[in-house]
Amino acid sequence: MMQWQKLLTAGRFDPKKTHQSSDSQIRTESERDYDRIIFSAPFRNLQDKTQVFPLPEHDFVHTRLTHSLEVSSVGRTLGKSAGEYLLRKYPDLSQQGVQAAEIGAIVAAASLAHDIGNPPFGHAGETAISDFFRFHEYGQAWQKYVTPDQWEDLCHFEGNAQGFRMLVSQNNGLKLSYTTLAAFTKYPRLAHVFEADPQRRSQKKFGYYSDQVQDYGQLAQILGIENAPNGCYLRHPLAFLVEAADDICYSIIDLEDGCTLGLVSLEEVVELIAPILKERFDSDKLQTYTKQAQKLAILRAMAINQLIQEVVRAFEDNEEAMLAGEFDQALTSKIPSATALDVIAEVSVRKIYRSKLVLEKEAAGYQVLEGLLEVFSKALNHKFYQTDLYSGKDKSILRLLPEDFPLEGWDSSINPYPMLRFLMDFIAGMTDKYALNLYRRVKGISLPGA
Question: Which PANTHER family match (predicted)?
């Protein structure tokens, strides 16, 4: 059974060291994590990455950056409330120097980073990258050179695993704390699992690539995170709160965005939110606000507040089962408002996520990412593996790669997986607009400066 004393072990992740103690500074470890994330280039790029509506033109529609900030705000409240409960239940944590505000800061930092690995064009971008390797001629060409585990990674691009890769990468220099990294990792398993357990929420997706197995293993050992029966790891309990903060925000705020863009009526939003607010819903008071934006804002604030309270109670009810590995479901599925959230999800899928506006721009995202992967993958393949096809066009294309891209030392006898990971780092790190502009240029649709 996992223990909070070890799950909250102080120190910063460094794959070259087995343990680092925390140094005393004005800021706590998790506060430093928050600052490092918010000032990092990958986080900054989220300002121009799709949340639901790609390349939004409306000022009030959310991007990945605004979504991440909101999830972090909700996560801080969830974490602090849960921390107060844990300190009452486990007085020894206070002697360890743990404070409720620090647990709130851990969840806030992990929530801030929760989408940092997402590629351009949202989930459509994840599918586009995966499908390139599964179906495209110049994606499939790499299969014979890599291991089965690595091929599973390539054919199943996952923003959560990409995010873990970015956070532990020495290039980004973040060196986050153990607890923030563990709370960030909602899916502590590889892509290639013989049989994932469908009853365990933490195995729905995967959270690290095959070349990060040792990294997560080191993290798990330090924090005392145990293995599930099929060889995957159990979740760190704070990861349930990060997931709940995300669930709360996208359920309510995507609905708000859908209404702002006219995809869902205000009357429908009221009808969907009222079951969450229950007796606190006051139709007459809502009518005192004259603007739609004001009505949406008050509904959003009240709904999020109610959901936070319900999630905290669900965490308290299931905390011991989390430590034992017996609870592995979304906390939002165990709250009184779970049915109301399911109804919101169904309406959002039907009227928002499958709206013409979203589908048209997702289709464009597929085209852009497949096109970029095609030209760069083909050029790399020709340079190192089918050298008789290497052309002047390939040389020009490769000059567009980042200066630190590893363009030396590859041939048909060397496993290209590390090189392909660098390529996906490059593509996944792009903003929507940069990806679109680069696609136009490499395809000859526009010229630089045009």
Answer: DEOXYGUANOSINETRIPHOSPHATE TRIPHOSPHOHYDROLASE, DEOXYNUCLEOSIDE TRIPHOSPHATE TRIPHOSPHOHYDROLASE
